[in-house]
Amino acid sequence: xxxxxxxxGAAHSFEVHPGTLLMELLRKEGVFSVKHGCETGECGTCTVxxxxxxxxxxxxxxxxxxxxxxxxxxxxGTPEKMHPIQAAFVETGAVQCGYCTPAMVLASHELLSQNLxxxxxxxxxxxxxxxxxxxxxxxxxxxxxxxxxxxxEGGHREEGLSDHREIDxxxxxxxxSLR
Length: 179
Ligand code: FES
Ligand code: FES
What we know:
By secondary structure, this protein is an alpha+beta fold. The chain folds into 2 domains: 2-74 and 163-167, Ubiquitin-like (UB roll) (Roll), CATH 3.10.20; 84-153, DNA polymerase, domain 1. Helices cover 28% and strands 13% of the residues. The protein has a 5-stranded mixed beta sheet, with helices on one face. A hairpin with a 2-residue loop joins strand 3 and strand 4 (53-56). The longest helix is centred in the last third of the chain and has 16 residues, at 138-153. It is globular. It starts with a strand and ends in a 26-residue tail after the last helix. Bound molecules: FE2/S2 (inorganic) cluster (2 copies). One FE2/S2 (inorganic) cluster binds next to loops. Residues 37-39, 41-46, 56, 58 line the site of one FE2/S2 (inorganic) cluster.
């Protein structure tokens, strides 16, 4: 079947099997920030944003993304020009092996697109679907709080809020909880 979607702002058309997972498609296309972890929707490492809402792409069919806009961490910033969330993760030492980091950054993006004054509890809730094997959560939480402060002070607004609730109950919605 043919699907049309946008990946990090670029339009694409693909021929896919109806059972192809979005994670498989993205990695086949070289989007390697989308990590292959548990394959069961538990660890969050395959997170992407679809129309601004985070989903686990290992339990989301590529066909479900037809007509939608996908953002991965490659679409947020570059090493030369990092998104404030990415910069805060680096600055606070929230990155160790980095395996969970793209997903954490995207989950943080989802939160900050709605709320630039999150409480620590809000941040922990936003990151609750992301399992970090290395750092624990102190540094990532610190990073998100720092990014929120800077984005608020700088008048930075994230996009995607208006599309949020449309796919809030999608099958790939994050499921793991650390709270
Ligand atoms: S690979 Fe673990 S949630 Fe998708
Ligand atoms: S930094 Fe290694 S899994 Fe989170």
